[in-house]
Amino acid sequence: MTTTTGTIGHFIGGKTIEGTSDRFGDVYNPSTGEVAAQVALASKAEVEAAIANAQEAFAGWAATSVVKRARVMFKFLQLVDANRDALATILSNEHGKIHSDALGSVQRGIEVVEFACGMPHFMKGEYSDNVATSIDLYSMRKPLGVCAGITPFNFPAMVPMWMFVVAVACGNTFILKPSEKDPSLPMRLGELMLEAGAPPGVLNVVNGDKEAVDAILHDSRVKAVSFVGSTPIARYIYATAAANGKRCQAMGGAKNHMIIMPDADLDQVTDALIGSAYGSAGERCMAISAAVAVGGIGPDVIDLLKPRVEALKIGPSLDPDSEMGPLVTAEHRARVKSYVDMGVEEGAELVVDGRDYVCDKQGYENGFYFGGCLFDKVTPAMKSYQDEIFGPVLQVMNVEDFEAAIKLPNEHQFGNGTAIFTRDGDAAREYADKVEVGMVGINVPIPVPLSFHTFGGWKDSAFGDLNQHGEAGVRFYTKTKTITSRWPKGIRAGAEFVIPTLND
Ligand code: NAD
What we know:
By secondary structure, the chain is α/β, with parallel strands linked by helices. It has 16 helices and 24 strands.
């Protein structure tokens, strides 16, 4: 078990251990508002001990054949699959998202493991024979060493699995520093990796806050850092990791626009918006948070959305009737509320006001619930539009035509995901080509790529040049070594003072 007397420690060197820093954070059950456990916040020394474990495990793991590493992944796949319901329950309890949605996010993690089971294919390298007389040229992919992942609260299974699954299958060892808001699931993944046959120290889970993150960023034994979280922290992680000579990919926040063309099927649009704006209470980096109604259809969109937002079934995460659970913490709820207040002050029209929502189910009155909010008449000058809100708040904007619509995502600081809903192939194709955003949906509201493609946004939504998972993930977690080889039969010339051109 990961909890002892209500505290969550760390998973280091294949063992669950208690923290020694005497610093703890509260872990809530957002559905009830109660503190469910205390998580240990690692000191610099504890992080360094975890890195030492990972460093020790590296030589053996890197030398383990990629076929055997893939077999560990096959076993891990079976274990996560067999435990998916229990994992989703842990997730719902600490995050607050409804169980079916939690199951979906575990599934998205499983798909990365399926990808990693094919790692022998991706580690094959390249070979060119006889590039000059008797000279062969080949490249190998080598793991980097100890890698680290720092992850956000909103996907405690999927995002860690984007990272450590690929890194470990490539032959690296890993330090996972999950969000301190929902640490139990990542701890369980550490246990399952050990059960799957990953030697102790290959995957370590260190809980903590900024102190732990800074210890990772400043330790020269850590060769690569993968981060997913908010943009200000992503920027800090990227700059600090790079200054310390590490590879870094750092994914940040978002404001995802859905363009609704006048010819779109508005019933389909309404369903898509309800799911993508209010699912997971809007706590998704790919949530649609701005709906752009083109060519005078705004009033129709609002008329269709309003009753649906008012009728959202908001309740405990494990209640099968709930469509939307609570927000993650009271602090986050206060932040979301402050943005709704700001939108009202800025002059947007609050069509549905969920700010005072209270769950009336017995035992859940103190949960961190927040009702769905719907704004109309939002403009680009509003700060509540420029910033990420990360809650169940949809902002509707009205524009004349396609050109004005595409300007909105293109001029926004973020560029994570976007969608266009239309029946016009020309508009869809032009949007996909011209929009300054990393992931685009055509009549698909949440275009999260599958694991064999890569995930990553543009602009302030991602720093670094290689995305998560897919071939980009393999490239991020490996370095190439290229060998030019000539055997004695081909060695005839004496010293040569001209750069070799291999032209004979
Ligand atoms: P966050 O930035 O607050 O925290 C992310 C991680 O950084 C956590 O592990 C946290 O402990 C650590 N951290 C926090 N403050 C730090 C500091 N000052 N110094 C060093 N480390 C620090 O993000 P969050 O609230 O957990 O997650 C929500 C955010 O993540 C949203 O902005 C969302 O858009 C973003 N997100 C982005 C993606 C993506 O792929 N682009 C995916 C999921 C979530």
